[in-house]
Design brief:
Elements (H helix, E strand, L loop, with lengths): L3 E4 L2 E4 L4 E7 L8 E7 L6 E6 L7 E2 L7 E6 L4 E6 L8 E8 L16 E2 L3 E6 L1
Parallel strand pairs: 2-11
Antiparallel strand pairs: 1-3, 3-8, 4-5, 4-9, 5-6, 7-8, 9-10, 9-11
């Protein structure tokens, strides 16, 4: 029911900033929890951040260390990940996901909890 399309990836220098976006089809978007995952070459897909229906309960992976901010604009059917102080280790394909079954205040953290996935957007950080 939900289609997700990531955008905003690109090449940035270490220490720079980048904002990636995830545009969702408008059907049931407001009542879906949303999350970001990433996968680097040769590594497993890992959790980055997630946000509840309301947008008021974000959760971040430890490696974020305060550098990233997840947000959503339900009126625009879009989720964002603002990434600051980027490091080469952040280089990966970033995927957005939606969980249509999450309770209102729940923040899903695991891939199996999500129902829909985008195609990914490449983020490359050079040193």
């Amino acid at each position: 029911q939900v289609q997700l399309v990531e955008s905003g990836g690109g090449l940035v220098q270490a220490g720079g900033s980048l904002r990636v976006s995830c545009a969702a089809s408008d059907r049931t978007f407001r009542e879906t929890a949303m999350g970001w995952f990433r996968q680097a070459p040769g590594k497993e897909r890992e959790f980055v951040a997630a946000i509840s229906w309301s947008g008021g309960t974000p959760y971040y992976a430890d490696f974020v260390k305060g550098r990233f901010t997840i947000s959503r604009d339900n009126a625009k059917n879009t989720m964002y990940l603002q990434m600051n102080s980027l490091e080469p280790e952040d280089t990966a394909v970033y995927y957005c996901a939606a969980d249509k079954d999450a309770p209102f205040s729940y923040v899903p953290r695991y891939p199996f909890e999500y129902d829909y996935w985008g195609q990914g957007t490449q983020v490359t950080v050079s040193s």
